[in-house]
Write a structure and sequence with these properties.
The structure is a single chain. By secondary structure, this protein is α/β, with parallel strands linked by helices. The chain has 9 helices and 7 strands. It has helices spanning 13-27, 44-55, 62-72, 75-85, 92-102, 121-133, 148-156, 196-220, 232-243; strands at residues 32-37, 58-61, 111-115, 140-145, 158-160, 167-169, 223-227. The longest helix is centred in the last third of the chain and has 25 residues, at 196-220. It starts with 12 loop residues before the first helix and ends with a helix. The mean pLDDT is 91.
Length: 244
């Protein structure tokens, strides 16, 4: 938040205090630059906010960043919008440029978590070149390793109550009555992305495009394989062990 748009006198003192305390707590944390890689449903989304808060990192989700750059009409955002309007993919160079821009933010001082990027080896190489130009590099690549069959059970079992966003799982967190929301009694739905057919095509794309990225970083010796089939608390414990 830039002081030009916000007068510090107007910021509630609790917010100022909590931000000061956060900065004091963060100042002693070592810098970390992490990439999270894993197929859909492997638990990256559950772990990344925990890692972000624990190590004072900024969370760079490239999809959100692209949308934000387009909305803010930054020079890169305008270019990205041109590509999107034509129905083209946004170029790797543009995405790396948007990441480069984001790294200037104070919240990224201690490092970052990259999620959803790089998806291809070419993207990984471009990212490395950009980080080298900043005098840094990726420290660790957390690979959320999990069997496709477990993912299928995890994902195709998910059901949502659309109005509240409450989610259930036929095996792990079933509703009291099948297909019915516990609170309102309204029917549950399955997200379009959560069907076996969609999952199969997303997994195929993941294996084809992104597994080579894991090999690329493994050659540099900075990949850590996490047991992503374990319950979330166990994965968090494993992450903390790896990053301590």
């Amino acid at each position: 938040m830039s002081t030009s748009s916000v007068n510090l006198e107007d910021v509630p003192s609790e917010s100022l205090m909590s931000e000061l305390l956060r900065r004091m707590r963060c100042s002693s944390k070592p810098d970390k630059r992490l990439i999270l890689i894993g197929p859909p449903g492997s638990g990256k989304g559950t772990q990344s906010p925990i890692i972000k808060d624990e190590y004072c990192l900024c969370h760079l989700a490239t999809g959100d960043m692209l949308r934000a750059a387009v909305a803010a009409k930054t020079p890169l955002g305008i270019k990205a919008k041109e590509a999107m309007d034509k129905g083209e993919l946004v170029s790797d160079d543009l995405v790396v440029g948007i990441i480069d821009e984001a790294l200037k933010k104070p919240s990224c001082q201690k490092g970052f978590i990259l999620d959803g990027f790089p998806r291809t080896v070419v993207q990984a190489e471009k990212l490395d070149v950009m980080l080298q130009s900043r005098g840094t590099k990726v420290d660790k690549v957390l690979n959320f390793a999990i069997d496709d069959a477990i993912l299928e059970e995890r994902i195709t079992g998910r059901w949502i109550h659309p109005a509240s966003g409450r989610s259930y799982h036929t095996k792990f967190a079933p509703p009291k009555a099948p297909g019915i929301d516990d609170v309102t009694g309204e029917p549950l739905i399955q997200r379009k992305d959560d069907t076996a057919a969609v999952l199969k095509s997303r997994l195929e794309a993941f294996h084809r495009q992104t597994e080579p990225v894991i090999d690329y970083y493994a050659k540099k010796g900075n990949v850590v394989n996490l047991p992503a089939e374990k319950p979330p608390q166990a994965v968090t414990a494993e992450v903390k062990k790896v990053l301590s």
